[in-house]
């Protein structure tokens, strides 16, 4: 077996938790992940969308199991491949539980080393296809990982046929009815190639050919006039009172709650801790630019966009859309054509980012009035000129400072453009004075968005380092 | 007459945004005052045989096999092609148009037999990256400039004598080994280019539409042409870096086969059409694609 945790931590430069330090650790001892994970409870979270948010919610919950505080190790800035995980673990206190988001393509290898007690599997859909090639290849790897992780409770989204298939052979599964808005990657049966049909009006789905069907959930998200609730098959029902917006975050919270149950926790305190989370690595945070109050949302693929539309402030609030096509985004932005941007008609739209022209052409054919402003900050300012001041009837209360004279704008960015914008706003990962990697996200301090956990991204401006090439 | 455009099985063959091709065709007709109807054919529906244009996209192995089986069973697309319908088939859609393709189990799957080509597996790495194609003289003569797109495919396609390639590959892999791209036979236009291909190449969209409605007047839209110019210029940059010793997509097929042997140094490019300066970086970066084409 490799060296001790202490040596590995010193190799990383304890407390810095940088990805570079993580690479150093793995160079010294390729089995370091297993060593660093030893003696602690490890929860892994993976999926195409919602990894970072669900990880933050779970970390918040596990940090306050019965109201009291305890340290939790986590990686909150998207450094979700082995080097980032090693860095986060090395920087955290020994013995503290760890909640780690893991890149979908790396899940199997990471799980084999860290031997998690809980595996949370959110969803699978098209993303970075130049790297992942086919969504089904990822599902196949997950299925193998679930088979091999005999000591883990698998928390799986029963509404995603690819996830249900991947988790189907696991020793112990908590099935969650978390919903699935984007279904276009799930209509070919992962088991037999037949057609999966989703029934109208219910959550059921089944393959027409082999009968593979939705597992009966143990926990599910219930939405209705009474507000969102987490319902348990055992009969319990808990209200979900989140500060994070949107249906997808209610789903993330229910998945996180199931993760807490899988880890031996109880729902009540977990939900209270999750309720306090207001932003996640800059997402959902609002930033003031000259005269403009910009709210930042992340959407990096069609499934993500399917959830973003109902988070947007209503028309005519302007929306800025930033698109890059770097390695971490996928080099091919064709996915823009799988997003029903027609829904933005009536809103002033600003296309920006390195592939802003690809987006502008998409908006052109969608007949959405738009302007192309390549520079990110200038794009936000241009949107501000097209918006109305808060308090004149367009505000939705997402900002806290109504009456400030600021113009409200929504900014939806994909992965690297989001990080570029954070950097331009002075909220880059690694901002001086930020909390250290490995310290739990503390509910209640989330009013300081962007007080980023240091050490997650290698260097500001190169987020590709953390969402790059798969195994 | 109302032009009927069918988008075939987007949930099976629509992984790479290729559904956009149908949106683009419909809009370019509408903006010119033509009536058009857009039919989305889902996997549970039967494919109508009466449409004027069929758009088929790329997808994953398992759904590809399912789509081919369904289309072979109904034979509606075969009837439509017999009646002169236009087909735009991309990537996995291209592959199933041929005699056979690589099925989900790795064995040969029965294609639709509408194109004289076969798709087979290869030991070469998956072809992933930007592509530039210089269309053949026939298409250049009809106003089609250099084509730009993004490819992402594992198998390779070999054309028989009954299908002509769209053109010659100037960047990327194309059908097989960096020589030619796509296949055209009658009114079937098949290509590996995503982007979607019609988003990046508005002139190709208009060429396909002209097969249905005859010559088309110009459109007052600048952004599609600007995107075409931007992508072509960027790809030229990549290509010139290649020509000066670099490999583009380290580890993918592009780096290896394209530069091997005869293609860049041999007789192939020394004919009357291309001057000897074709491979110099300065010329391309300065002048863009016009250096390739007889007419710009």
What is the structure about, briefly put?
The complex is a heterodimer of chains A (471) and B (296). Chain A has helices at 5-12, 19-28, 32-37, 51-63, 82-91, 107-114, 129-132, 135-148, 161-167, 247-262, 267-275, 302-308, 356-365, 376-386, 415-424; strands spanning 42-46, 73-74, 98-101, 118-121, 153-157, 172-177, 196-198, 205-207, 219-222, 229-232, 237-239, 286-289, 292-298, 319-322, 349-352, 370-372, 407-413.
Structure explained in plain terms:
The complex is a heterodimer of chains A (471) and B (296). In chain A, the strands form three sheets. A nine-stranded mixed beta sheet of chain A has the order 2-3-1-4-5-6-9-10-11, sandwiched between helices. Chain A has helices at 5-12, 19-28, 32-37, 51-63, 82-91, 107-114, 129-132, 135-148, 161-167, 247-262, 267-275, 302-308, 356-365, 376-386, 415-424, and strands at 42-46, 73-74, 98-101, 118-121, 153-157, 172-177, 196-198, 205-207, 219-222, 229-232, 237-239, 286-289, 292-298, 319-322, 349-352, 370-372, 407-413. Chain A is an alpha/beta fold. By secondary structure, chain B is an alpha/beta fold. Chain B has two domains: 3-213, Class I glutamine amidotransferase (GATase) domain (Rossmann fold), CATH 3.40.50.880; 223-291, no CATH class. In chain B, strand 11 (167-171) and strand 12 form a beta hairpin. Mean pLDDT of chain B is 84; it is low at 245-296. Chain A binds chain B through residues 126, 129-130, 133-136, 183-185, 187-190, 193-195, 197, 331-332, 334-338, 357-358, 360-362, 364-367, 372, and chain B through 10-12, 14-20, 23-24, 27, 43-44, 60-63, 65-66, 104, 126, 128-130, 150, 152, 154, 194-196, 199, 221, 223-224, 226-227, 230.
> Structural class, from secondary structure content of chain B?
alpha/beta
Count of helical segments of chain B? Answer: 11
Biggest beta-sheet profile of chain B? 6 strands, mixed
Strand content of chain B: 15-25%
Span between N and C termini of chain A?
Answer: 23 Å
Q: In one word, what is the shape of chain A?
A: globular
The CATH topology of the largest domain in chain A turns out to be UDP-N-acetylmuramoyl-L-alanine:D-glutamate ligase
Overall domain count of chain A = 2
Number of domains of chain B: 2
What helical percentage do the residues of chain B reach? Answer: 25-40%
Task: Say which CATH homologous superfamily of the largest domain in chain B is assigned.
Answer: Class I glutamine amidotransferase (GATase) domain
Low-pLDDT windows of residues of chain A:
392-402, 429-471
Biggest interface = A-B, 35 and 39 residues
H/E series of chain B: EHEEHHEHEEEEHEEEEEEHHHHHH
Strand coverage percent of chain A: 15-25%
Q: What's the pLDDT, averaged over the residues of chain B?
A: 84
Unreliable spans of chain B are 245-296
Please state the average pLDDT score of chain A. Answer: 84
Give me the CATH architecture of the largest domain in chain B, please. 3-Layer(aba) Sandwich
């Amino acid at each position: 077996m490799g060296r001790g945790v202490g040596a590995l931590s010193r190799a990383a430069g304890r407390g810095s938790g940088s990805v570079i330090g993580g690479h150093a650790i793995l160079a010294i001892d390729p089995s370091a992940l297993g060593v660093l994970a030893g003696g602690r409870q490890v929860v892994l979270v993976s999926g195409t969308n919602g990894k970072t948010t669900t990880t933050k919610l779970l970390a918040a919950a596990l940090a306050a199991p019965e109201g009291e505080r305890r340290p939790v190790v986590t990686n909150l800035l998207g450094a979700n491949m082995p080097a980032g995980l090693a860095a986060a673990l090395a920087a955290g206190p020994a013995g503290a539980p760890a909640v780690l988001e893991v890149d979908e393509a790396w899940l199997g290898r990471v799980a084999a080393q860290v031997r998690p007690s809980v595996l949370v599997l959110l969803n699978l859909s098209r993303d970075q296809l130049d790297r992942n090639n086919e969504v089904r290849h990822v599902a196949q790897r997950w299925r193998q990982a679930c088979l091999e992780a005999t000591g883990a409770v698998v928390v799986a989204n029963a509404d995603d046929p690819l996830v249900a298939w991947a988790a189907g052979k696991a020793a112990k599964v908590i099935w969650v009815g978390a919903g699935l808005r984007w279904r276009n990657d799930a209509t070919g049966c992962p088991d037999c190639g037949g057609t999966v049909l989703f029934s109208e009006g219910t959550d059921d789905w089944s393959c027409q050919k082999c009968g593979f069907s939705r597992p009966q959930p143990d926990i599910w998200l219930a939405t209705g006039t009474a507000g969102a609730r987490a319902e348990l098959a055992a009969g319990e029902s808990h209200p979900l009172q989140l500060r994070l917006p949107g249906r997808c975050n209610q789903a993330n919270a229910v998945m996180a709650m199931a993760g807490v149950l899988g880890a031996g926790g109880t729902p009540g305190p977990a939900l209270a801790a999750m309720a306090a989370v207001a932003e996640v690595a800059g997402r959902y945070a609002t930033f003031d630019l000259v005269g403009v109050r910009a709210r930042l949302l992340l959407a990096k693929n069609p499934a993500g966009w399917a959830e973003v539309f109902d988070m947007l402030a209503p028309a005519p609030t302007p929306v800025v859309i930033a698109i890059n096509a770097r390695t971490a985004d996928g080099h091919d932005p064709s996915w823009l054509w799988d997003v029903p941007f027609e829904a933005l008609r009536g809103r002033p739209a600003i296309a920006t980012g390195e592939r802003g022209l690809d987006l502008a052409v998409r908006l052109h054919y969608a007949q959405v009035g738009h302007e192309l402003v390549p520079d990110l900050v200038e794009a936000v300012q241009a949107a501000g000129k097209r918006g109305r001041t808060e308090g004149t009837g367009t505000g939705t209360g997402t900002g806290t400072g109504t009456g400030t004279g600021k113009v409200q704008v929504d900014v939806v960015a994909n992965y690297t453009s989001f990080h570029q914008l954070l950097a331009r706003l002075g909220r880059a990962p690694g901002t001086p004075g930020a909390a250290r990697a490995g310290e739990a996200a503390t509910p209640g301090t989330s009013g300081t968005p962007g007080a980023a956990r240091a050490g997650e991204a290698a260097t500001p401006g190169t987020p590709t380092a953390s969402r790059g090439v798969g195994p | 007459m109302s032009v009927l455009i069918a988008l075939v099985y987007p949930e099976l063959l629509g992984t790479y945004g290729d559904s956009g091709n149908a949106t683009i065709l419909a809009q370019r007709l509408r903006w010119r005052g033509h009536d058009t109807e857009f039919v989305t054919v889902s996997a549970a529906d039967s494919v109508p045989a009466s449409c004027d244009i069929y758009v088929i996209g790329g997808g994953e192995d398992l759904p590809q096999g399912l789509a081919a089986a369904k289309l072979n069973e109904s034979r509606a697309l075969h009837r439509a092609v017999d009646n002169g319908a236009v087909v735009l088939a991309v990537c996995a859609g291209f592959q199933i148009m041929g005699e056979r393709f690589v099925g989900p189990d790795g064995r040969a799957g029965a294609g639709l037999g509408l194109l004289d080509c076969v798709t087979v597996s290869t030991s070469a790495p998956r072809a992933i990256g930007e592509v530039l194609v210089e269309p053949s003289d026939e298409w250049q003569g009809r106003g089609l400039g250099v084509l730009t797109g993004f490819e992402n495919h594992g198998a390779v396609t070999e054309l028989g004598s009954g299908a002509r390639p769209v053109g010659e590959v100037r960047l990327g892999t194309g059908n097989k080994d960096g020589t030619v791209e796509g296949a055209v036979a009658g009114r079937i236009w098949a290509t590996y280019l995503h982007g979607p291909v019609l988003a990046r190449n508005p002139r190709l969209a208009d060429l396909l539409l002209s097969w249905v409605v005859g010559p088309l007047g110009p459109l007052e839209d600048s952004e599609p042409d600007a995107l075409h110019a931007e992508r072509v210029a960027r790809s030229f940059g990549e290509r010139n870096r290649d020509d000066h010793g670099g490999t583009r997509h380290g580890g993918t097929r592009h780096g290896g086969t394209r530069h091997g042997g005869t293609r860049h140094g041999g007789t192939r490019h020394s004919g009357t059409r291309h001057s000897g300066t074709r491979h110099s970086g300065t010329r391309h970066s300065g002048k863009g694609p016009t250096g390739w084409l007889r007419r710009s």
